[in-house]
Amino acid sequence: MSTLYKNWPKSSVTITIETGVHIVYNIDNKYKKPIEIDYEDIASKVIHEAEDFVECPYDCEVNLLITDNDEIQTLNKESRDIDAPTDVLSFPMLEKNE
Fold first, then answer.
1. Are the C-beta atoms of 45 and 13 separated by less than 8 Å?
2. Please, are residues 55 and 23 in contact by the beta-carbon 8 Å criterion?
3. Could you tell me the end-to-end alpha-carbon distance of the chain, in angstroms, rounded to an integer?
4. Which CB contacts under 8 angstroms, 24+ apart, belong to 71-79?
5. Are 24 and 13 in contact (CB under 8 A)?
Protein backbone atom coordinates (compact mmCIF):
# COMPACT_ATOMS: atom_id res chain seq x y z
CA MET A 1 0.00 0.00 0.00
CA SER A 2 1.49 3.33 -1.01
CA THR A 3 1.36 6.43 1.16
CA LEU A 4 -0.06 9.56 -0.40
CA TYR A 5 1.75 12.83 0.21
CA LYS A 6 -0.54 15.63 -0.80
CA ASN A 7 0.81 19.01 0.06
CA TRP A 8 -0.57 21.13 -2.75
CA PRO A 9 -0.99 24.77 -1.83
CA LYS A 10 -4.51 25.14 -3.25
CA SER A 11 -7.12 23.10 -5.03
CA SER A 12 -10.70 23.73 -6.00
CA VAL A 13 -13.40 21.21 -6.89
CA THR A 14 -17.00 21.70 -8.00
CA ILE A 15 -19.41 18.84 -7.49
CA THR A 16 -23.06 18.53 -8.47
CA ILE A 17 -25.27 16.38 -6.28
CA GLU A 18 -28.39 14.49 -7.30
CA THR A 19 -30.69 17.46 -6.58
CA GLY A 20 -28.73 19.63 -9.02
CA VAL A 21 -27.13 21.73 -6.27
CA HIS A 22 -23.53 22.76 -6.98
CA ILE A 23 -21.05 22.65 -4.14
CA VAL A 24 -17.67 24.31 -4.60
CA TYR A 25 -15.02 23.42 -2.11
CA ASN A 26 -11.64 25.04 -1.90
CA ILE A 27 -8.74 23.57 0.01
CA ASP A 28 -5.88 25.85 0.99
CA ASN A 29 -3.02 23.82 2.47
CA LYS A 30 -0.64 26.00 4.46
CA TYR A 31 0.69 23.16 6.59
CA LYS A 32 4.45 23.00 6.21
CA LYS A 33 4.92 19.23 6.55
CA PRO A 34 3.86 16.30 4.35
CA ILE A 35 0.36 15.01 5.02
CA GLU A 36 0.21 11.23 4.79
CA ILE A 37 -3.52 10.92 4.08
CA ASP A 38 -5.72 11.73 1.09
CA TYR A 39 -7.29 14.77 2.75
CA GLU A 40 -9.02 15.90 -0.47
CA ASP A 41 -10.95 12.63 -0.61
CA ILE A 42 -11.83 12.87 3.09
CA ALA A 43 -12.97 16.51 2.68
CA SER A 44 -15.14 15.57 -0.29
CA LYS A 45 -16.85 12.75 1.63
CA VAL A 46 -17.47 14.94 4.70
CA ILE A 47 -18.90 17.76 2.56
CA HIS A 48 -21.20 15.32 0.72
CA GLU A 49 -22.48 13.87 3.99
CA ALA A 50 -22.96 17.29 5.61
CA GLU A 51 -24.90 18.58 2.61
CA ASP A 52 -27.01 15.42 2.62
CA PHE A 53 -27.70 15.79 6.35
CA VAL A 54 -28.86 19.43 6.18
CA GLU A 55 -30.55 19.00 2.78
CA CYS A 56 -29.14 22.28 1.51
CA PRO A 57 -31.29 23.50 -1.40
CA TYR A 58 -28.78 26.17 -2.52
CA ASP A 59 -25.52 26.24 -4.38
CA CYS A 60 -22.83 26.62 -1.76
CA GLU A 61 -19.13 27.00 -1.15
CA VAL A 62 -16.94 25.41 1.51
CA ASN A 63 -13.45 26.71 2.22
CA LEU A 64 -11.05 24.46 4.09
CA LEU A 65 -7.74 25.72 5.45
CA ILE A 66 -5.17 23.17 6.55
CA THR A 67 -2.60 24.81 8.79
CA ASP A 68 -0.72 24.58 12.07
CA ASN A 69 -1.55 25.66 15.61
CA ASP A 70 0.36 28.95 15.32
CA GLU A 71 -1.80 30.18 12.43
CA ILE A 72 -5.01 28.93 14.07
CA GLN A 73 -4.06 30.84 17.22
CA THR A 74 -3.50 33.99 15.14
CA LEU A 75 -6.88 33.57 13.40
CA ASN A 76 -8.59 32.98 16.76
CA LYS A 77 -7.01 36.11 18.22
CA GLU A 78 -7.99 38.25 15.20
CA SER A 79 -11.54 36.99 14.77
CA ARG A 80 -12.65 35.80 18.21
CA ASP A 81 -10.31 37.59 20.63
CA ILE A 82 -9.22 34.18 21.95
CA ASP A 83 -5.45 33.84 22.20
CA ALA A 84 -5.26 30.05 21.86
CA PRO A 85 -5.39 27.42 19.10
CA THR A 86 -8.51 25.32 18.53
CA ASP A 87 -9.28 22.36 16.28
CA VAL A 88 -11.88 24.14 14.13
CA LEU A 89 -12.88 27.67 13.20
CA SER A 90 -16.23 28.12 11.48
CA PHE A 91 -17.69 31.27 9.97
CA PRO A 92 -21.24 31.34 8.56
CA MET A 93 -21.86 33.34 5.40
CA LEU A 94 -25.56 33.91 6.18
CA GLU A 95 -27.52 34.21 9.40
CA LYS A 96 -30.20 31.56 9.77
CA ASN A 97 -33.73 32.91 10.24
CA GLU A 98 -35.44 31.29 13.19
1. no
2. no
3. 49
4. 71/30
5. yes
